């Protein structure tokens, strides 16, 4: 033991630190350097006053520069101990919440925004944790508002004489343009999430493009809620026009000639069989994903690689699908776009007939788009795609069906790879 611990403690508390020792050594070195320069000047033979003044100014300049460098060194030493700014959006709570939802632990936010103090606010933290579901939600809201509103305007103004042309505000192509532009702008709104806007497209990307499966239910719920809210906005905007067109308090579905339920969801032509109804939605959905996979394929040399053109290409694709497949069943091609508004219309007074109309047609725009989108993705990957896909694995992906142990192994490897890459 130390014989005099108090004295030792006193001496230790007044002993210079390493940084102070370095500071004294540098100061002594600076003094020696300055003294040596002055001595050299004194030993120089007497010359002109101008020469002596010039040399003295040089010494003062060098001394000042050395002092400035010494001061700068200590500023850097002091700044070294300053705490680095905290990345607010990287808190463990946010990362854990996002991971549980199947989202990337790191939110898609610009680097400079992640250090802003406002990101520490309560709502900012919620927004960061749910950024992609919010993007899907509002993207679908925009899509459904513009699409359903175009249907409402064409239907409710039918035969209006004071309209340009004397026969209402718009026609079938107005509806196709409305849905096409709605999809395009919805894609821009939902850009941070991948902009799927459609549970069937999300499902196809999970199956063929390695989108994490845990992300599917999160996106599907956001898309369904977005279509539900969007259709409610359209109803609120056109409620007086619906009353004027159909009669106050009257709400009907096809085949009633005055039915306004078609504003919100799709119904088939009365002469179609169930097989024809299903096939119409199936083939339109298959074409939808076949073209989307082509537009998104970096190995497809016939496609412009700049993703900024993708929303515009989708406008033309939706317009074309409406022009070719809209008459039979209304080209839902999106389970959320049909189911959400159907639920909203049921609540708003259309009742159970929303589900029984068309011989209980309601299940076809839910099931057929899933089947069609998967088939379209399968066609593209079998015949064109050369990237990572279950089709480009042993047995063309059938090994995943007949060998559950292999499927489980691949899923675990994919999950671990996703963690390493920060995807999940």
TrEMBL record:
Recorded topology in the membrane: Multi-pass membrane protein
Bias (Basic and acidic residues): 15-40, 76-87
Protein name: Aquaporin
Subcellular location: Membrane
Membrane-spanning ranges: 137-156, 176-197, 218-238, 278-295, 307-327, 360-380
Similarity remark: Belongs to the MIP/aquaporin (TC 1.A.8) family.
Lineage: superkingdom: Eukaryota
GO cellular component term, pick one: plasma membrane
Record field: catalytic activity: H2O(in) = H2O(out); glycerol(in) = glycerol(out)
Main location: membrane
CDD domains in the record: MIP
Pfam families xref list: MIP (PF00230)
Signal peptide: none
NCBIfam families per record: MIP
Biased composition (Polar residues): 45-61
Stretches the record annotates as Disordered: 1-94
Organism name: Canariomyces notabilis
Gene Ontology molecular-function annotations: glycerol channel activity; water channel activity
Keywords: Membrane, Repeat, Transmembrane, Transmembrane helix, Transport
